[in-house]
Amino acid sequence: MNILNLEYEKYKLNNGLEVILHRNNYHPLVSVNVWYKAGSANERKGKTGIAHLFEHMMFQGSKNVPKEMHFRYIQEAGGSLNGSTSFDRTNYYEKVPANFLELILWLESDRMCMLLPSLTQEKLNNQIDVVRNERLERYDNQPYGLAWETILNNIYPAGHPYSWPTIGYIDDMNSYTLEDVIDFFNNYYSPSNACLTIAGNFDWDNAKTLVDKYFSDIETKNKPDNLSFPPVKLKKEKVITKKENVQLERLYLAWPTEKAFDPYDSSLDILGDILSGTKNARLYKSLVYDREIAQDVTAYQYSGKYAGHFLIIATAKPSVSLLLLKDEILKEIDNISSNGVTQRELFRSKNGIKSSFIYSMQHIDSLADQLNYYNFYLGEPNSFNYDLSRYEDTTEANIIECVNKYFKSSHIELHIAPINGEAENQ
Amino acid sequence: MKLDRSQKPTASVELSFILPEEEHFKLDNALDVIFVKRSNLPTLRLNLIVNGGSKTDPINKKGLANLFAMMIDEGADDYNGLELMDEFDMLGSNFNVGCNNDGIYIGLRTLTENIDRSIELFAKVVTKPHFDEISFAREKRKVLTRLIQLRDDVEEIASSVFEYIVLGKEDLYSFPLVGYENDINNVTLNDLKNYYNSYFIPNNSALMVVGNIEKEELREKLNYYFRDWKPKVLDIEKYKSNLKEFPGIFFIHKEDSVQSEIRIGHISENRSRHDYFPRKLLNTILGGQFSSRINLNLREDKGYTYGASSRFNYFKECAFFNVSTSVAIENTANAIREIIKELNLIREGVTESELYFAKSSTILNYPSKFETNRQITYHLTTKYLYDLPNDYFNTYLDLIRDVTIDEVNKSAANHIHTDRLVILVVGDKEKLIPQLHEVNSDKITELDYVGKEIRVF
After folding, report:
1. What does the pLDDT read at residue B82?
2. What CATH topology corresponds to B248-456?
3. Residues of chain B with pLDDT > 90: what percent?
4. What pLDDT, on a 0 to 100 scale, did the predictor assign at position A423?
5. In what side-by-side order are the strands of the sheet with B94-99?
6. Which residues, numbered 331 to 360 in chain A, qualify as contacts with chain B under a Cβ-Cβ cut-off of 8 Å?
7. Using a CB-CB distance cutoff of 8 angstroms, which residues of chain B are in contact with residue A99?
8. Is the interface score ipTM higher than 0.90?
């Protein structure tokens, strides 16, 4: 499709920094998006969460940018900004009126090369407090908030970096030192380990001149070693039962599957859609709509650079047993394995995916991030049509194959039950 | 040569920004349509607002409008609920229904290649909904289970009980959208049909459309697909304010909670045009963005929280101001004291440089508020809901520029009141009670999950 075929230019500076430019002048806005190829997968045990803490430190000012001024300069210019950390990468992004492109390149380049001179113990202590609060607020104090890390702990072998959550553990947070932060910077924040994308309203020559001005004299550091891990296999089924301060029981089923962009990754996405993506999806229709034994159900493939897993989550209606939910879910997966899916189900899922690709084209900041995403996983930023074709080419046979390949092996089960065990009487 | 990085770059050339052009027209059935043409992508978004919403819920039937919103797409014309959604899904169109205190909202996002079929289905939901017994029983059970689930959600508990107390427990805006268990059990299918007959009327509604279509083509299609929807005389009671003030310190016990959810605020004045802009700039300085006083103090200076913010919450007929944050439970009293300190401080006035910053960020951010069809639809809906003047978007920037520091300081004095704060905390009471006594030795009231008094300490 034409509108999914983005014109872009990609090149590399002498210090190894990759640059991707995509011009779109519909709005007077420009988006800058930097991916560093470092996430929680690059951490070691005992220092979990350091990649994310580091992301916070990147907003604390750099040599030429006093504390709090990174935010203030961008907001004063009418811009928005944030960053995020995942298993595989950390990104930083800004969207500003097009005439402030230089301001952003100055800020991004200053922290790429001059973060350490401004680093202080006081800033670190403050941000350790902030990320500790972030963890408490977003995980510990949320209903079922620790389920994700329980799944990770159990599905990935000890030592696999996906076996801990990106936010990290509280005890590890308390142990971060300035040295840890400096090491992380020196190991992973080299221009040669990053990709800078600029998307939106700019002038080609001017943008290249500015990129050259602010980034070309940044010194390159050693490239980190490539990580690699053997495929994840569970030796046997695991059932984990937890009592928590919640009202309703919830079931999690997880299977190790495959990495992002591996052959069945897209079939697994479509399978998730067919199971729970719409009101007519199989599990939603049977468990939530027709039989009312679940309040909600979600099924999806999570895939990263080094591994992936498929997750099904269902919350039981009061007084419904999780074993019943489990039986029904496994029966449906067997059913797909034996009888396949309908053409209508495939078509529905593909249409939804296709239109979501088109709808997503209106956000210049998500386009910039998506260019970086494709560049990171595929080495080719303009992969929208390729990505869509992975879904369009998926056949009924592919769905059956991926079910047979991954869902006949051992899985993890997590049962979360209310502490007092009497949800229905509340 | 190493670059000298010490100088902050300034803006290059002046930018020009052209606001999207609005077109207003009425359909043959008197439905107001507000349309913005955008031709960059082959997509279209529609949003119908039907005035009413949960503020019309009768006493003992709180939750009616929300249940109505859950039911309206459970079957229409020739399709049952599942078939209907399947038709939308097969087109790759997204259809959704929402509800708030002031209205029911029906939204559609479609590719232009499927405009006809998508609008046809959308119109069926609006004009020929089923309201059958089986779906009603199922959706009712769903919302009752949802009520049980909500007891786990500390943010939701804090926000909904805060609104209940701050808006005086008896105002039509005081009650949670989702309602109460007994009330929901009282709602009958007939109530929903009556709601439909009273409120789902073209002359009580407006349709926002943004996307890739010509105005005349749109008008023709809408007139055709909404041809069975007829105007009627409106027989709707006018909102009567019943706001009351219950300042004080309240808490809700949540066993073993590691954080406390804090809400602090009071009733505010309605969104009137002359005063809106100073208030907006005031809040930008106080707690409306990352670099605001409250967040910098509680997060970047004290490290009590992941984030803290303040806002004026405007409904169509009333408003309240609040600060909200979540902090590690041992910092509850510290955080409350700092928030009150900031509220007192802002009453002493803002600085010229703070005002410059607030204006600059608001003015320069304006173009990015019109980037997506969704944003534009949202702005059009807001403008309609608050009955803002026709030239609102065109005059917006000038009205911001014209605000003086005296006006901002006056609005701080008029709209921030530390002598009548409602302070509500959700957390573990063992750790909360001593801290709340530290904040204020007066009485502390424990509330249950729906805001009813349990006891006074």
Report:
1. 98
2. Cytochrome Bc1 Complex; Chain A, domain 1 (3.30.830)
3. 94
4. 41
5. B22-26, B32-37, B205-211, B43-51, B103-111, B94-99
6. 344, 347-348, 351-352, 354-356, 358-359
7. 11-15
8. yes
